[in-house]
Design brief:
Strand content: 35-45%
Largest sheet: 3 strands, antiparallel
Shape: extended
Number of helices: 1
Radius of gyration: 15 Å
Length: about 80
């Protein structure tokens, strides 16, 4: 039930936000490929065609959170979002 609620809230927030085009005018999934990895070195390839900007109110006025499709946040008080 908790995961359904979190999914519902995430969907509501992302559907109300605005898609910011980098390479695609329509919303696309972010692609992440680990090309190689070891204990000392990892090579990761990203394909990000755009992102969502979610307006938030702060003491300094309105600002925006950048969000990727299927992206994650730290969700810790005092941590950057």
């Amino acid at each position: 039930m908790k995961s359904f609620f979190i999914s519902f809230i995430s969907f509501t927030i992302l559907s109300a936000s605005t898609w910011q085009n980098i390479q695609s005018p329509t919303e696309t999934q972010t692609i992440l490929n680990v090309q190689s990895g070891s204990l000392e070195n990892s090579v990761v390839a990203f394909n990000i065609d755009g992102f969502h900007l979610i307006p938030v109110q702060t003491p300094e006025g309105e600002m925006y959170l950048a969000r990727l499709e299927d992206g994650a946040s730290l969700l810790e008080a005092g941590s950057p979002d």
